[in-house]
Amino acid sequence: MKLAEALAERAAASRRVEQLRARVIGSARYQEGEEPAENAAEILAQAGEVLDELERLIRQINRTNSTAVVEGGGTLMDALARRDVLRLRHSVLTSAADAAAGKGQHGVRQLRSELRILSALPVVELHARADVLAKELREVDTLIQRTNWEIDLIED
To answer: What integer pLDDT is reported at residue 53 of this predicted model?
Structure first.
């Protein structure tokens, strides 16, 4: 099985756990004299089985990520860490640029005698830096996606 397939299975298992959780909550109590909509104990047992499978997949995915070498050096785990930090850097820069540009603020001057609002940051430069980060983020993400389809999952 390829790593990308295991990632898809992990996502499906996570969704299934959330569905089972909702069903257990909905069936955990019922009114005296009536029957519950579903057997909460059976649903809880199903959730346990799915969680066991999810744990197995996560262990295999993490083991694979920490040993798989990506193009350009480093492991897949290193590339994932790089992608996460690039996303945060991009978010910080774009938020700073937007705030400095006054986006979302309603401070329009009515009269010449009112105080002007000035930018404390170079908006154009921040947007340019954010664009460079966005390009690097796309490249790292593409590398990760390609590697996910090339690398075999490490089995237990």
So the answer is: 98
Alpha carbon distance 62, 103 (integer Å): 40
pLDDT digits (tens, 9 = 90+) for 110-153: 677 778 888 999 999 999 999 999 999 999 999 999 999 999 99
Cα 66 to the center of its chain, rounded Å:
18
- Using a CB cutoff of 8 Å and minimum separation of 24, what contacts does 120-128 make? 121/96, 121/97, 123/97, 126/93, 126/94, 126/96, 126/97, 126/100, 127/94, 127/97
Strand partners, 152: 2
**Which two structure tokens, joined as six digits, stand for 61?**
């995915």
Q: Name 151's bridge partners.
A: none
Q: Residue 107 — φ and ψ, nearest 5°?
A: -100, 55
Q: Is 18 left (phi over 0), alpha (psi -120 to 50) or beta?
A: alpha
Helices (H), the chain: 3-27, 40-67, 76-101, 123-150
* CA–CA separation, 131 and 55 (whole Å): 38
pLDDT in tens, 19-36: 999 999 999 999 999 998
